[in-house]
Specification:
With 367 residues, the chain is α/β, with parallel strands linked by helices. The protein folds into 2 domains: 254 residues, Collagenase (Catalytic Domain); 81 residues, no CATH class. The strands form 4 sheets. It has a 7-stranded mixed β-sheet, sandwiched between helices. A 4-stranded antiparallel β-sheet has the order 6-7-4-9, with no helix packed on it. A 3-stranded antiparallel β-sheet has the order 3-8-5, with no helix packed on it. Strand 15 and strand 16 form a beta hairpin. Helix 3 packs across helix 4. The protein is globular, with a radius of gyration of 20 Å. The two termini are 25 Å apart.
């Protein structure tokens, strides 16, 4: 779910006043001197729209309990999904104001819910396998299930061979990321998602003022809590209702970034798990700002937010739900057959399998 900074001597993190100086060095590093690349980055920048929002002006939406049924016994809500012949996907998200919450699917269901204590989610399809029409059952369980808000986001139509993905890019004022660096990163992001025949549509860069207290949390736990508060506020009425949401912090300790869920609550407004959190400073190297790595971070974490798991974990203890991805018993990129896959645990390469593309194209936020 999170992409950690490499444990090697290659990176030298530089902060403070030197940031602006190093950002200028990124042009040569990321290949922007190539005329074709320059033209493409300029085209991406020209397609962005720009907004400013004051964080202090945002109002936190209240959670509302929306129970749709109850099973006998304590702390259980039971639900069903009616999957029709024209259903493309359904994302289910539950959030509780107290206690913990989880989801149990019918036995034999290959999809895998993801719980973070107070939130839990899953998406159909989460594997590269068609879902026959019918009724599919699941239970919301745990100490906080009785008070949980359970919401879903569905998509209907023909089965897609391609699609368009919109982006909401929330830059906290003071995070240090320029629109030029972001355009370079988005070019890399777009290349990765082209493997799934997904092109980028509307892209809105939102500068978030009044967010100084959020810029550099001291731990992952603090950053996760701050990001949850930001998500509740900024996704209540985002520029692009079906957009993939990004929250750009200045610094997260030892992390490139993380997704707020697998999947995140994409297309569902006002939740604490609305998208992807990115650390800007972690992408600074001794050669300048690494926009290429930023693009890969954005793509990797967006894969998580749209329902993809790591193909293999570092120790080989767990693998993804996709049938056509190779897996590894543990090791580095060079030692594993899935090492160059975008969703390998280290996430430093851009490749996607046909099965991963199948799931991404069917996401409820792809249109």
């Amino acid at each position: 779910m999170m992409k950690r900074a490499r444990e090697s001597g290659r990176r030298s993190l530089v902060f403070g006043a030197a940031f602006g100086l190093l950002a200028g060095a990124a042009v040569g590093q990321d290949g922007a001197a190539d005329p074709a690349r320059q033209a493409r980055v300029a085209s991406i920048a020209s397609r962005m729209s720009y907004e400013i929002v004051a964080l202090s002006a945002q109002q936190l939406p209240e959670l509302q309990v929306q129970a749709r049924g109850a099973a006998p016994g304590p702390s259980t809500q039971s639900f069903s999904i009616d999957w029709a012949s024209d259903t493309v996907s359904v994302l289910v998200y539950a959030e509780t104001a107290g206690g913990s919450v989880d989801i149990t699917l019918e036995k034999g269901t290959p999809e895998r819910p993801h719980s973070k204590g107070g939130t839990v989610s899953f998406v159909f399809p989460g594997v590269d396998d068609p879902i026959p029409p019918g009724k599919y059952l699941f239970d919301v369980v745990g100490s906080g299930s009785d008070a949980a808000t359970v919401k879903s986001k569905g998509r209907r139509g023909s089965q897609p061979g391609s699609g368009t993905l919109d982006l909401n890019l929330f830059l906290l004022e003071g995070c240090g990321l320029t629109s030029g660096q972001l355009a370079e990163a988005i070019a890399v992001f777009e290349d990765s998602f082209s493997d799934a025949s997904i092109r980028l549509g509307k892209m809105t860069l939102v500068t978030v003022t009044g967010a100084a207290a959020y810029l550099s949390p001291g731990s992952y736990e603090e950053g996760d809590a701050l990001a949850a508060a930001l998500s509740r506020q900024l996704t209540a009425s985002p520029p692009n209702a079906l957009g993939a949401n990004f929250f750009f912090f200045k610094k997260l300790p030892d992390l490139y970034g993380f997704s707020q869920g697998i999947p995140a609550a994409l297309g569902i407004p006002g939740t604490s798990s609305g998208g992807v959190v990115v650390s800007v400073d972690t992408h600074i190297t001794d050669r300048g700002f690494d926009a290429h790595e930023l693009g890969l971070t954005m793509a990797h974490e967006t894969g998580h937010s749209m329902g993809l798991w790591h193909t293999s974990e570092r120790d080989g203890s767990q693998h993804d739900t996709i049938y056509d991805t190779p897996t590894c018993a543990g090791g580095s990129e060079s030692a594993c057959p899935d090492g160059t896959n975008l969703m390998f645990w280290s996430g430093h390469y851009p490749n996607l399998s046909a099965g991963q593309a199948y799931v991404l194209r069917r996401s409820p936020i792809v249109h």
